[in-house]
Amino acid sequence: MVVARDLDLDVAPGEALGILGPNGAGKTSLFGMITGTLLPDAGRVAFKSADITRLSPAARCRAGIARSFQVPQPFGGMTVFENLVVAASFGEGMSERASYAHCRDILDRCGLADRANRLAGSLTLLDRKRLELARALATRPSLLLLDEVAGGLTEHECHALVGLVRDVHATGVTIVWIEHVVHALIAVVGRLVVLHGGGFIANGEPTAVIRSPLVEEIYMGISADG
User: Fold this and answer.
1) CATH C-level class of 1-51+148-226
2) Are 96 and 103 in contact (CB under 8 A)?
């Protein structure tokens, strides 16, 4: 089975890039190749001009690449604060004590300060999504990969999360965001690519990409003939 075919994608420092595509298009596999959990059969992955194709996922995280997962994966038996300390200690290399102030700042930024001592497994879906993002931020990434962080949220919750992602991007963090909630995606990203069958079929300004006949036919299910 081919999950990626001749993919060629450059992301500029500080860019917010959206990735759209139907289920099975290869989006999560693309993230796996960037983070090192999936090795490509050919080609290379470069980050900050360095070839990282054979670098371990841990080494890539230390280099500045972090990701969230579509289904939040916190340590449910640990508190929210402890989850961030683990991320900062192992993902960024900080000592436990040195990480405390950093983690408190992340909790404030993500709206989780009043939940710091709650068990992660007891959080609502929105707060688990916030924690998933906070754990990634605790590693001090320069590149943040977001995998469907808006999925399953109400309109109000989605709006809150979009604001958080926008604030993160405003700090200079490069963002690559996979999302099915299109209005959330285009509220943040400046460029949109569409993945289908393991290859890119569109790349450009978000509104123009969404309205292109090929994208409407393949992704939206709207016939290009009307």
Assistant:
1) alpha beta
2) no
Chain mean position to CA 179: 9
**What are the extents of the domains in the chain?**
1-51+148-226, 65-140
Average pLDDT, the chain: 91
- Whether the model clears a pTM of 0.85, i.e. scores above it, the answer is yes
Higher pLDDT, 27 or 16: 16
Q: Per-residue confidence at 3, pLDDT binned at 50, 70, 90? A: low
Asked if 17 contacts 178 with a C-beta cutoff of 8 angstroms, the reply is no
Residues 6 or more apart whose CB falls under 8 angstroms from that of 24 comprise none
pLDDT of residue 224: 43
- Distance, CA of 107 to CA of 92 (rounded, Å): 16
What is the three-state SS of the chain?
CCCCCCCCCCCCCCCEEEEECCCCCCHHHHHHHHHCCCCCCCCCCEECCEECCCCCHHHHHHHCEEECCCCCCCCCCCEHHHHHHHHHHHHHCCCHHHHHHHHHHHHHHCCCHHHCCCEHHHCCHHHHHHHHHHHHHCCCCCEEEEECCCCCCCHHHHHHHHHHHHHHHHCCCEEEEECCCHHHHHCCCCEEEEEECCEEEEEECHHHHHHCHHHHHHCCCCCCCC
Please give the Cα distance from 183 to 201 (Å, whole number). Answer: 20
